[in-house]
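Team,

Forwarding the record for the chain on the shared tracking sheet. I've put the sequence and predicted structure together so nobody has to dig through attachments.
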Amino acid sequence: MAIISKKKIPYRISDKLRRFLHKYGKEIAIPLQYQDLARYTSAITLYDRKGEDTLWLSVYYSQSDQEYIFGSLKLIYAILKIDGNISLIDHLMVDRIDVCTYGNTRPYRVRIVNKINDNFDYFYVKIADASRIYGLELEDVMSPNRVRYLVHKDTLIEEHIIGIPGDQFIKNHVDKGEVNKIRIAKEFIKFNERCFVRLLGDMHSSNFVVDTTPDFEEMHYRIRSIDFDQQSYEGRKNVYLPQYYKQNKSILEIGFEVLTYESVRQYQLEERTLIANRLRASRYLLRDIMGAMIPDEIAPPSHVISLKEELAQHYQNAKFLRANSMGDVLKESLKQLFR
């Protein structure tokens, strides 16, 4: 079983990472910072449709602050979604701002509503953390998913990732037998492999969503990470394998039920081949990411030592033992794809 022992501290953005963000257009000036949203005057508990506490609070601002904050948030949404074209946002309004009371960094979630048709979207305002930024970039490079984000000073803006929250999917679909067992088991194996290869930890069911797409005969599933704080941070190998989290047990048991050992190996190798092809296609971007990550301190030295030792044993590869940083460990992990 995988256990995260302590809350992770955020790591500052290094000069090299800041230059990377600027080079690739992710460092963009915005009119509002994370601390501005902390000036709310009151808050109420946010309940879901069933009347259960979501552990989020809806926050409210004074009239003088609200005009500035709401206007700034609309502009940020335009920068994130439509390259800053403010002529297209007159019909949008900020409907609600929520703060997460259980997250490490107390992120804010902004709900944007189209006044013409009541359609809505979300984005998030968070404290910029180097680990999370590396996680977002690696998600873009190594997975079939794309995530838009931008950074300004110590503030991180992220788009909302659409999907059924993993814990709800397990409770309402998996546990009730309302899934294609082979397809969800196959996708979980591929997700497990992606997380392990790129060293993304803490992927229990509250930290991923399931994107469902109707196929012409059946349902297609894709599991997507939504939390990247634990990118290359923990010192234990099992933390990077979603199969070891008790919250994911129901999906894992389906795999034991419907898949053979040969099928599991096939899906693992399929995913590793896909990741290798993505890395080849994005080799210059990956070079720049690793150029910033390798000298960066994004985990305690003790975590680096314990993880490189466990991976050296797992892969029977002593080259892991030469690693001096989490970036070095990740680089060696990626090299396994080509051996």
